[in-house]
Amino acid sequence: MKTVIYDFNGTILDDVDTGVIAINALIDKYLDRGPLSKEEYKHIFRFPVMEYYKDVGFDFDKLDFRIIGQEWMDIYEANKDIYHLYPGIRDQLINNRRIGMRNILLSASRQDKLLRQCQELGIDDLFEEILGIDDIYASSKVYIASDWMSKQKDGEYIFIGDTLHDLEVADELNIDCILVANGHQAKEVLLEKTDRVYDDIREVVNDPYWSI
């Protein structure tokens, strides 16, 4: 059986504008610099997020990363009316199941928040499993993915994400990876590490993995 493992933020959920709003609110509060444009954000964003904050200019010798992370989450939640599913993703998930593929969701979002978001978006029943982390600081998805993968039977697996961290997770799992370039990292950044990059989530079904 073929299994498609999806990242959430920036892959299924278009929350890039919400992320830009949140980081710029923190920049305005804590830093003596101008805001990030959406394009600048997509070139500077990376995992682990602490390193991304440092690139922006936050000094965690002077600021508490946990406080900054919580404030970011509060601002993100206050602007959740802005984010939405990427066009075509619901139909893709439904069609995957129709042709016998499994959908798995893997995210650096906290598990309870991830489940709530999926329920609010009406997609929770389209995944066989929904896998999130146990805190809000988005350190890594690798340990969750590795633990889940160790319990799986033989089959074909592919990971779809929008950042180079997703590629790293796929490499750790020893499975193939597809990246989409309309999420949290710019296409030029993604192409530095792989050429298996699509502009839109709707295009991934043209990948050879979907050949039956």
Protein described:
The protein is an alpha/beta fold and 212 residues long. The protein has nine helices and eight strands. It has helices spanning 16-30, 38-44, 49-56, 65-78, 89-98, 111-121, 142-150, 164-173, 187-191; strands at 2-6, 13-14, 84-85, 102-110, 129-133, 156-161, 176-180, 197-198. Strands 5-4-1-6-7-8 form a six-stranded parallel sheet. Helix 6 links the parallel strand 4 and strand 5 (129-133). The longest helix is centred in the first third of the chain and has 15 residues, at 16-30.
What key phrases describe this protein's structure?
212 residues, alpha/beta, 9 helices, 8 strands
What Rg do the Cα atoms give? 17 Å
Quote the average pLDDT: 94
Portion in beta strands: 15-25%
Question: Strand arrangement, largest sheet?
Answer: 5-4-1-6-7-8
State the helix count. Answer: 9
Number-wise, the strands total 8
How would you sum up the global shape? globular
